[in-house]
Amino acid sequence: MNNSDLSGQRVLLTGATGFLGGATAVILAGQGAQVRALARRPEKGVFLKSRENIEIVQGDITDAERMRSVSEGCDYVVHVAAALGGTLKYQERMNVEGTRNVMLGAASAGVKRVVHVSSIAVYGYHYEGDITEDFIQKPGRVPYNITKSQAEMVVREIGTAHDVPYSIIRPGMIYGPRSNAWTKTIFRLARLRPTPFLGDGSGFVHPIYVDDVVSMIVAALTHPMAVGEAFNCSADPAPTWRAFIGGYSQLAGHSRWLALPVFPMKIISPLIETLLTLRGEPQELPALITFLSAHKTYRTTKAQELLGWSAQVSLQTGIQRCAPWLREQGLLHE
Ligand SMILES: NC(=O)c1ccc[n+]([C@@H]2O[C@H](COP(=O)([O-])OP(=O)(O)OC[C@H]3O[C@@H](n4cnc5c(N)ncnc54)[C@H](OP(=O)(O)O)[C@@H]3O)[C@@H](O)[C@H]2O)c1
User: Fold this and answer.
1) Where are the domains of the chain?
2) What is the pTM for the complete model shown?
3) Long-range contacts of the stretch 132-136 (C-beta < 8 A, 24+)
């Protein structure tokens, strides 16, 4: 099956009002799929309204009955929706129970395949070197990492028990127009002259341009070899933080870097970690600081070999493609 075979196929898409989901809706619809775009608040999907092949339907993934009814008549499901922050209890409800409802809805509709969007977060912060899909997941005590890992288990359990073909993709840090975390926030940091960052930025970062993630979603949805498999989806080889943030600095017209000493951060991070834990949102800050300076690559050999997928957008091109949106946001002036 190739991309054009999605033409006329009905695809239920969760998370359509978000960054990745919005891009996925537009690209799938452009390939002729009939996209049923799920939105908790349909007014947030205004940018999708009046586009050909996209129907916005109201619904919440925590509502099992609603997920059953919106899945009816669909050929495929792409499950993008998730909570990226909040307490463990909240993220369990959204990411684990929500995924259960999506899978059960898909099972009752008898869809041909579900693609579940997971994350490299499932591996946790501690591995070094080359990381492949068969590594044991060590999400630690960070709610997002834990619940994304548990969501994968739910996909496998229900997929196997109800005979729903599924595929899982694990993106790195997704950037591109409409990305708050890896475009807007990083650009705000990068345009500071000099740009402050922990250390010399020689540790590795794991960006992936949004269109490359969508092309993997399409491959996972349509390629026969994708069924029952999980795929890393990240820059391979990984660039350095200096190259990533420096690319945005260049867009802002400078290349000045301020290396902040790592040692004081290591001293105060356990205190900040305690405060976050008291708020019910534990993080592993010392491990996260080490993660920033680590040399690791989430290898994408499996997707290259099984699906014929590879990232097409270089870091330089991807950052350039963010420029018009950053201008629109009033962040980039030249
Ligand atoms: N961004 C990254 O760098 C990154 C990296 C790796 C993996 N991922 C994964 O990629 C996916 C999308 O991330 P994103 O960056 O696009 O996040 P996002 O912009 O925050 O989008 C999340 C989407 O999920 C929807 N959603 C959340 N809870 C819901 C619920 N209970 N019912 C229905 N919809 C719900 C949100 O709806 P509202 O608009 O109503 O809030 C929004 O449309 C997630 O699964 C995330 O774990 C992201």
Assistant:
1) 3-179+206-238+297-313
2) 0.96
3) 132/232, 132/299, 132/301, 132/302, 133/170, 133/229, 133/230, 133/231, 133/232, 133/302
Q: How many C-beta atoms surround the C-beta of residue 318 within 10 A?
A: 23
In ligand 1, which atom is closest to the CA atom of 60? 32
Q: 226 vs 75, 108, 180, 222, 330, CA distance in Å?
A: 16, 22, 30, 8, 41
Instruction: Using the mean position of ligand 1's atoms as its centre, give its distance from the Cα of residue 143 in Å.
Output: 15
CATH domain 3-179+206-238+297-313 topology: Rossmann fold (3.40.50)
Whether 208 is in the pocket of ligand 1, judged by its Cβ within 6 Å, is no
70, 80, 95, 168, best to mutate for ligand 1 pocket (most atoms within 8 Å of CB):
80
Residue positions counted in the chain: 334
pLDDT along the chain (334 residues), means of 10: 76 98 97 97 91 96 98 98 96 98 98 98 95 97 96 98 98 98 97 94 96 98 98 98 97 95 79 80 82 94 98 98 97 88
How far apart CA 170 and CA 101 sit, in angstroms, is 20
DSSP letter, residue 24: H
Tell me if 82 sits within 8 A of 154, measured CB to CB: no
- For the record, the structure tokens of 134 come out as 């068969």
What are the CA-CA distances from residue 147 to residues 17, 137, 194, 284 (Å)?
21, 12, 37, 15
Q: How far is CA 25 from CA 38, 91, 124, 322, in A?
A: 10, 24, 29, 19
Between the CA of 82 and the centroid of ligand 1 the distance, in Å, is 4
- When computed from its CA atoms, the radius of gyration of the chain, rounded to whole angstroms, is 20
Q: Locate the ligand 1 atom nearest the alpha carbon of residue 182 and give its number.
A: 3
Three-class secondary structure of residue 167 per DSSP:
strand
